[in-house]
Amino acid sequence: MAEAADDENFFSIMKNSLIDALEQDTLSEQDKLGIHSLWDEAQRSNS
Fold first, then answer.
1. DSSP code, position 26
2. Closest by alpha carbon to 42, among 19, 10, 1, 20?
3. Model confidence, pTM
4. Dihedral sign, CA of 21, 24, 26, 29?
5. Cα(32)–Cα(13) distance, rounded to whole angstroms?
6. Would the pLDDT of 36 be above 80?
7. How many Å apart are CA 39 and CA 44, to the nearest integer?
8. In the chain, where are the structural domains located?
9. Are 27 and 35 in contact (CB under 8 A)?
């Protein structure tokens, strides 16, 4: 159960970091592609 909470916390932190970066538009196209593939991977492993 603790592991699920850790994952939840990790995703929450990642999401907030992503939102900050997107709002500040500090991501390069390469970063955006990497993030999308990480996000897809996370969604797959999370379901």
1. -
2. 10
3. 0.43
4. positive
5. 17
6. yes
7. 9
8. 2-46
9. yes
Which residue is listed with tokens 């709002």?
Answer: 23
Helices (H) and strands (E) in the chain, counts: 2, 0
Q: How far apart are CA 15 and CA 41, in angstroms?
A: 14
Separation of alpha carbons 15 and 27, rounded Å: 14
**Nearest-CA neighbor of 39 among 3, 24, 19?**
19
Calpha distance 16→46 (Å, rounded): 18
Q: In percent, how much of the chain has pLDDT > 70?
A: 94
